[in-house]
Amino acid sequence: MLGPTSILSGRHWQERILNFTPAWFMVAMGTGAIQQALVNFPYPITGASYWMRNLGYCFWILDILLFCFFTVMLAVRYITHPTLINKNITEFPSSSYFGAIPIALDTIIIGIVSYYNYRPSAMWVAFGLWWVALALTLLVSIGLLIVQVSGQPQHSITDVAGLWLMTCVPMLVTAATGSTIIQYLGTISTKCSITILIISFLLWSLGTTQIHLIIAVYFWRLVSSKLPPNQLLASGFLPLAPLGQGAYGIQQLSIYLANYLRTQHYAPTQSSPPPLPQGTLDSTAEVIHWLGILLSLFFLAHATFWLVQASSAMISRKPKSFNIGMWGLTFPIASYANAWSYLSRDLRNDGMRGWAATTTVAVVVIWLVLALITTWLGLFKGELFNEPGLEEWIPQEKRDEETETGQSSGQSSSSEQDGSANRRQGREADQA
């Protein structure tokens, strides 16, 4: 199904809506991740400067606009062509792009926390939206996974790609979002913050298990076969997304739990405690904090390996065409940079701080290049609105509509005939 050739062509918006897919939400989630990386930029040492926070705010507003626009586009597409819902859900691995929707919503929530954490009303809004993101995350990460496992044809090892991670990435992103909220929600409602803490750690644990299973399979695919096709090379960076978000999330969770133990004198084995000595609580909290740092280092070391591998694959193959999947570069690298920024501030390490700043600048440059290309090829030329396989679904949808129309018209015709016969019989009876 060919997309429009110009923004001024007569069928541009009809074709764009018809060819719109959930993959476009990767643009929104990449834009939101840039905002987070700029807010946590490691220079100056106390955090990003005022102008960088304002720049991040602009990215956040753009993220909101893109998310709303893409949501409307996807809703109109499925309302006008309901058959395509089944197509997008059952076709794997393209169905994995549904994971970009809760991730994009999570980036909006993080923006609320970053800029309005001093307002209780804003924190309650973030708290409510987080539950919406959690529902979408479970729907994608568990519901979609069940559909994929039960309804997909047999796959070979060469079918495995980094895109497979998109079904479980939302769990780690939502967990990291929860870890950001509780740092400020705890001053308003301790009960709500503890609830998010527990759920976020459960999400982090489940997501960590799933991503390492898929990464292991993907690594075996790389060493046993050649690189994925050019259009999927950008998905090689996707392991950085869950690993970077996992590193950031576990460090935030450990910091909050450590502070909670210090301030609330909490000991899980005591139902009605005499409180433990403050020294014991402080030591326990310090151990928990260091465990978070060590786990964060483990995740980031793993992510660095995949950064080197994916970069070398891109350099060796040099993709010659652009597709919307190339936006798979921005969110993973921004998540990786953000995790290093936060860890460098916690450890006060200049080497980490410099590496975090370098990767942040690099991903901003990548975002600018992708934005320019997407604006030209997507908005003006319409070449990026081109979903393969529509030729097999749209005719079937039209045939189904024609069949339903024919049945309804047939029923109405027979009803009219019955009514005419009844009227003739009535007139004959009156004449008699």
Which CATH C-level class is it?
Mainly Alpha
Shape: globular
Rg from Cα: 26 Å
> What is the fourth-level CATH superfamily?
Voltage-dependent anion channel
What share of the residues does DSSP label as strand, in percent? under 5%
Gap between N and C termini:
65 Å
The major beta sheet can be summarized as: none
Name given to the CATH architecture? Alpha/alpha barrel
Give the total of beta strands.
0
How many helical stretches? 13
Element pattern in H and E: HHHHHHHHHHHHH
Class per helix and strand makeup: mainly alpha
Average predicted local confidence, pLDDT: 84
Q: If you consult CATH, what is the topology?
A: Glycosyltransferase
**How helical, in percent, are the residues?**
over 70%
Which spans have pLDDT < 50 for at least 5 consecutive residues?
1-11, 412-416, 426-432
Number of structurally distinct domains: 1
Pfam families: SLAC1 (PF03595)
Protein name: Sulfite efflux pump SSU1
Family: Belongs to the tellurite-resistance/dicarboxylate transporter (TDT) family.
Biased composition (Low complexity): 405-420
